[in-house]
Specification:
An eight-stranded parallel β-barrel has the order 1-2-3-4-5-6-7-8, surrounded by six helices. A two-stranded antiparallel sheet has the order 9-10. Helix content is 38%, strand content 18%. The protein has one domain (3-250): Copper homeostasis (CutC) domain (TIM Barrel, Alpha-Beta Barrel). It has helices spanning 11-20, 40-48, 69-85, 103-113, 130-140, 158-168, 185-192, 233-250, and strands at 3-8, 24-27, 54-57, 89-92, 117-120, 144-147, 173-176, 196-200, 202-206, 227-231. Helix 2 (40-48) links the parallel strand 2 (24-27) and strand 3 (54-57). InterPro entries: CutC-like (IPR005627), CutC-like_dom_sf (IPR036822). Keywords: Cytoplasm. Its main location: cytoplasm. This is PF03932 family protein CutC.
Length: 251
Amino acid sequence: MYKLEVSTYSIEGVKEALKLGADRLELCSNVKEGGTTPSFGFVKAALKTGHPNVFIIVRPRGGDFLYTDDEFDIIKKDIIEAKKMGVHGVVSGILNADGTIDKPRTRQLIELAAPMKFTFHRAFDMTCDYKKALADLIDLGVDTVLTSGTKNTAIEGKEIIKELVELAQGKINVLVGSGVNPSNMEELQQSTNAQEYHMSAIKMVKSKMEFFNPNLNMGNVDSDEYMKQTVDADKIAKAVEVIKKLNKLGC
């Protein structure tokens, strides 16, 4: 079965993804940093919708995936809290300074997360040897690896993704992400034979604020407090239709 995972940064996105039939959700904060651990208020609200597959990214900051002892402790505590709340899966992972998988620490996270599912996120794409990294994740018992084939986008990395799917031999799910959208999902399926696809579905809309202070910026120079990030429901709907088409053809 082909599946669609939607990465969402708002409760509006969760509700639309549920209504439109996305198979799995990944809750995140801070889209400009590639996703960090969402607030637990957001997580609780998402779980309350009743979606059967709510995953959260557990990543304490943006940047690299080489973590201090304090950061590792934060990751573990966030996984414990996610389990208490009834989250269905976590998305996390740790690297060594040499670009290899930090197996001892990642094993701790997997054991701590059980029985929740465990996805190793795109830290995988920053490893020095993707074949060895995949073998390590299989050895660790990771359920899913999210990857763009070590490239900026999945389309650019499609040849490596195809190789990863072949190497995985069904022992780990290969989840294709980065730049995935309804217009290229069929091409990716034909090129890689992957069965799971991950995409974000966000768009910016104008704030409903009536008063604007032109002399103030609360974030970095690229931020705009008078634009609001929300869900692109049309994108989800079209992607769900592609998944349905692929499943029908597969039958």
